[in-house]
Design a protein that fits this description.
Length: 119
């Protein structure tokens, strides 16, 4: 599952991700899997949660996402939430995670995206 993620920085916040050990999928029927490993940089002060959403940019398909609670680490390990895995039926596609950082009141205080090809 090659390639590298390209972070897009917004308000100084950025992140990269690694697909991890998700089941191989190429039949167009995504699996429910746990989140990839996210490595965060410049997380805004006061951040409590991050909402993640995955989109297949080649076909504009929403793979859903979830919310991770921040614990002071700059790494979010698998198991914070489940989403529908990448599963392109016709070769590699480019996928984009969007991360929206929120404070304790639920206010948006940062946002960034990161893209990677699968497989």
């Amino acid at each position: 599952m090659g390639g590298f993620s390209l972070p897009v920085v917004a308000d100084g916040f950025s992140f990269t991700f690694e697909w991890g050990n998700i089941p191989s999928c190429s039949d167009g029927s995504p699996n429910d899997v746990t989140n990839p490993i996210f490595t965060l940089s410049n997380v805004p002060t006061g951040a409590k949660t991050i909402d993640f959403e995955l989109i297949d940019l080649d076909v504009d398909y929403d793979h859903e996402g979830g919310t991770a609670t921040l614990s002071g680490s700059n790494i979010i390990q698998p198991g914070a939430f489940e989403y529908k895995s990448p599963c392109p039926p016709d070769g590699s596609h480019v996928y984009e995670w969007t991360a929206t950082v929120k404070n304790a009141n639920g206010d948006k205080i940062g946002k960034a995206t990161s893209e990677k090809e699968y497989p």
